[in-house]
Design goal:
Largest sheet: 8 strands, mixed, barrel
Low-confidence stretches: none
Mean pLDDT: 81
Strand order of the largest sheet: 13-14-16-17-18-19-20-21
Structural class: alpha/beta
Number of helices: 26
Helix content: 55-70%
Number of strands: 21
Strand content: 15-25%
Shape: elongated
Amino acid sequence: MRAYIKITLTQSYIIAFSLLAMWAFFAYETMNSQIREEKKYAELINISGKQRMLSQRTSLLANLYIETAEPRYLDALNESRVLMEQDHRYLMAHLPSETMRRFYGEAPEGLDARVSGYLALLERFVDSSQIHFVDGIFDASSALLPVLDRAVKAYEDESDAVTNRLMRVELYILMGTLLTLLLEALFIIRPVLNRAKWNLRELDRRVNEQTEQLSIYKKLVESANEAIIITGPDNRIVSVNPAFTEITGYTAEEGIGQKPSLLKSGQQDHRFYERFWAQLNATGSWYGEFINRRKDGGYYYQFSHVFLLRDATGAVNHHVMIFSDISQIRESQEQLEFMAMHDPLTQLPNRAYLMEQMDHAMERAARSGQRVAAILLDLDDFKTVNDSLTHRVGDLLLQHVGRTLREHTRRTDTVARIGGDEFVLLVEQLQDGEELIILLEKIQQQLAVPFEVDGYLLNLSCSLGVALYPDDADSSDRLLQFADTAMYNAKKLGKNQFGFFTEELNTAIRHKLEIENELKQAVDNGEFSLVFQPIVRLEEERTVGFETLLRWNSGRFGMVPPDHFIPIAESTGFIGMIDNWVLCQMQEVLADRALDGYYFTVNISSKQFSQRNFMHKLLECFKETEVRDRMVIEVTETAIIDNINHTKSVLSGLKDRGFRIAIDDFGTGYSSLYYLKHLPLDYIKIDKSFVMDMETDENDRIITDSIISMSRQLNLLVVAEGVETQAQMRYLQSRSCHLGQGYHFAKPLTLDEAKTHCERGA
């Protein structure tokens, strides 16, 4: 039953909906017909009214032409005629004859003839411009106006009738629609309304989401640290964010309507902006830096991202610039670059900057044919100032030297500090040598002026070395190297001297470099060997020990004297490797039973001795006390004075652990009684330069006697080096000198020869 009722209801709905559809179609057609009629009559009213207006306008224009005779009024008359003619043709083409007869009360041909005659008369007047036609035009126009008035009135009446019919149709439709709505409300409208409500809620939700998203975007833009400028197609600002004001100083009101060139500083030329626009238009995006000006006139660096926004057709409708103030970053970069290329103490260029300037100076000199001079300046006795008056005084002194050099050199010259107390002057555009000598003397004179710092009055002097391009070197490295060589050569001559690089110095440098290269492989190639010179107790003329001497038989140079390669090894750092090799060899020598009862002296370089782990290394090599008791460590006065406190500590440690200590070449360096009093010494070795001339030089005899006498009183053993004659030996014996060594007793011996020497009991 329920199924039947459901089917019946469904069929009823279908029938109702079908009737409703038919009714709607009928109503639509009826209304559409009435509306078309209404449109037609409204159009007729409009055209008739327009013709009436044009007819009146022609009368007015004709009158104006009569009064002024201006051609423009004729043109306007002709325009009115053309419009009337077009409207008349439209009426004739679209209105049936019975309609026109009903409206005008006459045959259509008569109305056509009347209007056509009026238009023809108007056309003749326009073409001929004859004044006597005017009255005819006025008469024709006056006759035409009542006809047009009747047409307008008739059209209006007919339009009202159509409108009344249309209103009745609309009323019927409204009633039918209301009835239909009652039927459909429960079955059709409700789901539609529900769906519409759901759509509205969904639309509202999406609008809220988009509004919230836009609000987030707005807050994001307003809170961004980067400034944002948006311009229109004409490149005028339409929007900015608060960061724009913070960075530039311009408010939004001051910026909007302006162009971004408001910030232009003039620090970048037109070519920069040409490249900017070319890339932006070509790629749609640009990254880079602007140097812009704030509202207060200050410059700032601006890193920007500029891009284009286009519409659906591809046309640019907005430009967007996002930028940040990177002035502090640029300042930090410039400061880092300055620090990387300048000395932090004196603010002068450093070695890296100097080398770049030297390369550029040489390039310019090569083109101009002029010379470039590199002057290396080293302060005399600066280490003494640093050690005795504190490093602060030394720093102030270096700053004073830097200022003095900068103040008394040309702006085109470069003054650099390359380390320690070494400065370099790079002098360009030299005319002759006399000019250079004047500059050198001027520098020495200015630095010789006493300088007061922290209550100390310091008198400075310096040593200067000069090398020239292209005379001496063709590269910046070699030019600076040769200037350094010339400076050291000048320093050997005494304080406050200057010297020039010479070919002899160049030869010495090349030889030194060759020695350095050979020294690198000397240990691995087995080119070193040890020899042993006997040390004799003079009272008995018997050998009691040996001095260990190093020999180098180079595969390239043959036998190289120690005084040639030892200084080079010390300056290059190879001496540590050589000393280690010597100590390893001495382990084998002291382990040889044939040499029991004899002590051996070993020279330790100042470089090796100054190392903090030297004593530990020595103790590792010689662990047995008996062996240490046969080892005498020789140190030079140079090694002692380099660091007296470190020296005293190390020597005391070695003495406590069984080693014996000797000062080598006493009298040739900074001989001081302080060493003899405070250092744990066992031996003093008199340099051979005093011994060899004792027979002929009274001063040498006095010095030798004084050293022997003083040493005996301090309970120190004295070893006289370089004893070569019987007379020298006898004299030393007469002065109670303990020990001697030299060719008079024996030349340096190989290890096997030393063993044989000991076996003979010599």
